[in-house]
UniProtKB/TrEMBL annotation:
One of its GO terms (molecular function) is starch binding. InterPro entries: Carb-bd-like_fold, CBM20, Ig-like_fold. It comes from the Eukaryota. Pfam families: CBM_20. Residues 12-61 form the CBM20 domain. Signal peptide: none annotated. This is CBM20 domain-containing protein.
């Protein structure tokens, strides 16, 4: 399923000579290669908030059963009580402003 996503990140430890990128497993986020990562820009309200533009990604979808309040808040298939859920693996990384990109050494490590 294709969908538009945008990132908003709070990154208080990013230095003035650095920028924030989103790198992930899908091709639109570089396939774990920083050279193809999505760059974020400082938010209009200023640092430490960072924003990306919208990007269309192909999200794998799996279905899960729902009940209770969640069901009333989401548009779901009323006949079977299921909702589509997508998972997107990514990391926020602070890189030097002059970075040309390298591969993320351990994409399973959630630390920036």
């Amino acid at each position: 399923m294709k969908g538009l996503i945008a990132f908003v990140a709070h990154c208080p430890e990013v230095r003035e000579n650095q920028r924030v990128v989103v790198v992930g497993e899908c091709p639109e986020l570089g396939g774990w290669d920083l050279g193809g990562a999505l760059s974020l820009a400082p938010a209009p309200c200023g640092r430490p908030w960072w924003l990306s533009s919208q990007v269309e990604v192909n999200l794998p979808e799996c279905t899960m059963g729902v009940s209770g309040d969640f069901e009333s808040e989401m548009e779901i298939d009323q006949e079977v009580g299921r909702v589509g859920v997508s998972k997107l693996n990514f990391r926020l990384v602070a890189v030097p402003n002059s970075s040309n990109g390298v591969e993320v050494s351990d994409p399973d490590n959630p630390c920036v």
